[in-house]
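Researcher: Structure for this, please.
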Amino acid sequence: MARISINIKDGSVKKADTIIGIDLGTTNSLVAIIDSVNGLPYCLSKSDATIVPSILYFNPNGEIKVGNAAKPHLITDPQNTIYSIKRLLGRSYTDIQAHANSYGYRIIEDETKAMIRVEMNGKFYNPIELSAFILKALKENAEAVLNTKIKKAVITVPAYFNDSQRQATRDAGKIAGLDVLRIVNEPTAASLAYGIGLNKDENKCIAVYDLGGGTFDITILRIEQGVFEVLATNGDTYTGGDDFDRAIVMQWCQKFELSIETIEKNKSLYQSIRLQAEHVKKQLSSNNEVDCELEIEGNKHQFKYTIEEFNSAISSIVLRTIECCKMAVRDAEVGLTDINEIVMVGGSTRVPAVVNAVKAFFKKDQVHNELNPDEVVALGAAIEADILAGNRKDLLLLDVTPLSLGIETAGGLMDTIIPRNSKVPQLVGRQYTTSVDGQANLKIAIYQGEREMVEDNRKLGEFILSGIPAMPAGFPKIDIQFLLNADGILKVNATELRSNTSQTISIVPQYGLTDTEVEQMLLASFQNAEQDMQNRLLAESRTEAEQLIYQCQKLIQANAVLLTEMEIKETEHLLNELREVIKGNNRDTINEQTERLNDYTRPFAERLMDTAIGNALTGKKLDAL
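Model: Predicted structure, token format:
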């Protein structure tokens, strides 16, 4: 039942805003909403097209066609027809340079180095603007079907989308005239569509395997008493059905001794072959072989393409998804026998080889693929929209952050504040202090990653907390708060508590992160775990030694008249020895030398403290209790 508002003054009834769920897909996009009569989600359709291809065509007159109307131009005018735009969201030219020739349209590097641009009939567009055209068409489609204005939406993204890509999706929605209430992980939305866990007495652990046109995600969820908790996510932001199509094209090129580079230069030819490969792929979901005919440079090639050839072409791609599954299960800290059900999402899960590989890995005889895999994400987005509208209070959705977030501390160490796979939204605070007397400014650098040293992680941004009152080292109390909101966007606040000096930063999306960097972050953390820990311990020992050197120098400078010549000489000797061993990489030697200096200076440091206290109390008397 929809929530309504009543104007108490005049008694009029105002219907609450309609909130739609949008699956902005690489290949296709959909809009879904909850049926006000039966409370079930359904996908909206304009005429006969429920699914809108994520394709844009820019004609010379400036008209923009979207969806099925744009699809024929992939062959007739590929230079001005855009597809798979989702793969370009939040990316730099460096990220997609290796694949640039496989697109029918021209991709160029933006002068700011931040985002790529696409040239259409002499005009330039960035991926956010292009995605906004698709979202605007979906919005107008929904308004026509529902006969009401649409202002609010929930948009889904792959669970492995980084901060930049999530923010780019939100920006695209804003340009399209939508207030994006929530960015939701696609696998999480799909679990809602299947209704698993709606029975509050049902406790389950499920895996959602989502292989779409351009991205892959695997999510492990625990569902207890109506609470959806994401235990772990993993994926590949550049693996999907488009790669299946390209694998077929490359196999055909090898079969007929054709140059893939030459074919890619002829945009119309490449699109024609790619679309045929896509058609063949779909046919092989229910057939063992397909009759094919290719016409290349006046030569006709007629042949049969078999399921065995197809499986061979895509085997390495399928294997990549299974490797992601292994990592997700490990991160979730569950066994394969603990996972009760497998949910298949995305059009590419219709491929029999994919289904068989998933069954084999998870050791299951059956998987959930009874619903239309192209629609389940949009249906789940509609349910989430219904929750945000206040119409369903029986569900609670908890997502996680895929990589740890933290700051740089002394010695170049990564101090994790929000660990990987923490629930979002999340607010975590931690207190720090200064290491130098009178320090007025403190640089706070924010990083994302799993390595012990910040140099091995991804830098998100930095800011300066200025105006700290002059105080001895260790006296300021600096509270750093990390707020990771429901969309996975990070805000950082730093406050010096004694003076209430404060500074806040919203992490600006950085579009220069490559796929390889994202995909290798977790793997590198496991491969280098032992060495990383040794590096961390060494850095901590060096930092402790440097602090002791600093304190000893202060002590000598301030109390030289109270120390004997021998005490000063021996202390300086030990200081020099410690300075030398710090240059090396032997942690045990550094610790031993640090302890020697500590042991030698401790007695006269205590003597100096007693003298200082005695002087402070001279001539003073204590009030009677």
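Researcher: Any notable elements?
Model: The longest strand covers residues 227-236. Residues 529-559 form the longest helix (31 residues).
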